[in-house]
Task: inverse folding
């Protein structure tokens, strides 16, 4: 049975170096094996770097994803405001 490897975190600088190695012609398999990376993580880094030049999730969202997140936040705020107004109406009704 294989032991589960602890989750590692990588700095943006490290990710950038790995992507640069790949873009400079080093084979993907060699990079993954040499630095003990997962293929999926490495592929995400390459894709994000090519899309926006950033490894941050926020910078790699589509306009639709960003709009959806904004709308969900606004909806949550409006629901909260509505609850506050309902509670205020109940308090005023009792007086």
Result:
């Amino acid at each position: 049975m294989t032991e589960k490897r602890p989750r590692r975190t990588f700095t943006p600088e490290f990710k950038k170096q790995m992507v640069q190695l790949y873009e400079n012609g080093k084979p993907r398999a060699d990079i993954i094996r040499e630095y003990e990376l997962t293929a999926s993580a490495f592929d995400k880094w390459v894709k994000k770097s090519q899309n926006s030049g950033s490894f941050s999730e926020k910078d790699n969202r589509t306009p639709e994803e960003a709009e959806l997140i904004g709308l969900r936040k606004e909806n949550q705020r409006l629901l909260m405001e509505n609850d506050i107004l309902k509670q205020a109406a109940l308090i005023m009704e009792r007086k």
Q: What stands out?
A: The chain has a mean pLDDT of 88. The radius of gyration is 23 Å. The chain is about 65% helix and 0% strand.
